Amino acid sequence: MSKKIRTAAVDHLFEAILNLKDAEECYLFFEDVCTVNELLSLSQRFEVARMLREHKTYLEIAEKTGASTATISRVNRSLNYGNDGYDMIFSRIGIPTKAEEVES
């Protein structure tokens, strides 16, 4: 993980997020913390990652999410060469991960 983001302020933000109890609390908190566009961008990236794991094409993903090919490519790079954060969450919510794809 990049040392650039490991700051006390980021630690405080993550501590706050870890204390959210349900989706309604997430909506309340994130609507206060993020702009609408920031939140929509985050959710779009997550949807792009999910669709990439489902082997959707860039064209299918762009049409469904409105994401640019640059965004799709950036998310794909994170999926393949990142810190496995997406796959950690995917395994917890029942979406096949790259490790599970290799096993099959």
From TrEMBL:
InterPro entries cross-referenced by the UniProt entry: Trp_repress, Trp_repressor/repl_initiator, TrpR-like_sf, YecD_YerC
Protein name: Trp operon repressor family
Listed SUPFAM superfamilies: TrpR-like
PANTHER family: LMO1763 PROTEIN (PTHR40080), TRPR-LIKE PROTEIN YERC_YECD (PTHR40080:SF1)
Molecular-function annotations in GO: DNA-binding transcription factor activity; sequence-specific DNA binding
